[in-house]
Write a structure and sequence with these properties.
The chain is built from five helices and seven strands, in the order βαααβββαβαββ. By secondary structure, the chain is of the alpha+beta class. It has one domain: Gcn5-related N-acetyltransferase (GNAT) (Aminopeptidase, 3-Layer(aba) Sandwich). α1 packs across α3. The longest helix is centred in the N-terminal third of the chain and has 15 residues.
Length: 171
């Protein structure tokens, strides 16, 4: 059983481990191996500590906590891209679960809590970006009610260009 709460500074190492291991598992065969192999928990934690020490703005971090500490992490806030229309749009910036625990409902619990908090802040829509080739993540978000809205953007990882799709759903 897990519960979801706001992340605090004591969670940084665990969240960095979840994020780095999550990238290395989820993006194997999609993002170049050289890029994934260069990722370290230590460098991620150092950046996260620096970020955590500054004023937080409107973004929020949640952790799913199990018996032995954090097992998942989500980050969300105001949408970073312009979406036409009068609705207030939030964005899920990141959502990762310890790779050995994927499929146990932890990601869905984090996403549901993020949606609840977004709605509580007055947002009407949630958006997120997902790599085109990340079929597992696309299916996860589609089961949660997200649909691709036609917007794309490209990211470059070790000179390899990968396309992301923007997904949206109402809150």
């Amino acid at each position: 059983m897990v519960h979801v709460r706001e992340m605090d500074a004591a969670d940084i190492e665990a969240v960095s481990t979840i994020r780095v291991r999550g990238w290395q598992a989820a993006y194997a065969g999609i993002v170049p191996r050289t890029y994934l192999d260069a990722m370290t928990v230590e460098s991620d934690a150092a950046l996260r500590r620096q970020w955590f020490s500054q004023p937080r703005g409107e973004s929020r971090d949640l952790v799913a906590v199990g018996e032995h500490g954090p097992v998942g992490w989500a980050c969300f806030g105001p949408c970073r891209s312009r979406i036409p229309g009068p609705r207030r749009v939030a964005e899920v910036y990141a959502l990762y679960v310890s790779p050995d625990l994927i499929g146990r409902g932890i990601g869905r619990r984090l996403l549901d809590e993020a949606h609840s908090r977004m709605a509580g802040q007055g947002f009407e829509t949630s958006a997120l970006w997902v790599l085109h080739d990340n079929q597992r993540a696309r299916r996860f978000y589609e089961r949660a009610g997200y649909r691709a809205d036609g917007a794309t953007q490209d990211d470059v990882y070790d000179e390899v260009t990968l396309t992301e799709l923007r997904y949206r759903r109402g809150l």
